[in-house]
Amino acid sequence: MKKRLEGLAEVAPPVVYVSKEDALAAFKSKHQNDQFTLPTLDETRREPARRYIKHKAKDPSQYGNIASS
């Protein structure tokens, strides 16, 4: 999927793959001062983060074309 997005003329570089572990680290960093979120995360043992590919369209009107590619 990352290579496919990189090959689309409508997508602006960079296209970045974010692993599940990196997504979780970013989530914890973002919520480090939240007195409710992190303890709840530990109690429920649920994984809030999923892997994803971060990308931007050169023009916001092109997201429809990117999604349908």
Walk me through the structure.
With about 70 residues, this protein is α+β, with helices and mostly antiparallel strands. The chain has a single domain, classed as 2-Layer Sandwich (Alpha-Beta Plaits), CATH 3.30.70.3040. Strands 1-2 form a two-stranded antiparallel sheet.
Can you count the helices?
4
Label the overall shape.
Answer: elongated
Could you give the count of β-strands?
Answer: 2
Helix content: 40-55%
Distance from N terminus to C terminus (CA atoms, Å) equals 11 Å
| Rg over CA atoms | 16 Å
Mean pLDDT: 89
Low-confidence stretches: none
- Reading side by side through the largest sheet, how are the strands ordered? 1-2
Helix-strand topology string? HEHHEH
What class do helices, strands and sheet pairing give? alpha+beta
Q: Specify the biggest β-sheet.
A: 2 strands, antiparallel
CATH structural fold name: Alpha-Beta Plaits
CATH architecture: 2-Layer Sandwich
The total tally of domains equals 1
Q: What percent strand?
A: 15-25%
- Which CATH C-level class is it? Alpha Beta
Secondary structure blueprint with pairings:
Blueprint: H1 2-6, E1 11-18, H2 20-30, H3 37-44, E2 52-57, H4 63-68
Antiparallel strand pairs: 1-2
Offer a few descriptive terms.
single chain, about 70 residues, alpha+beta, Alpha-Beta Plaits, two-stranded antiparallel ribbon, 4 helices, about 45% helix
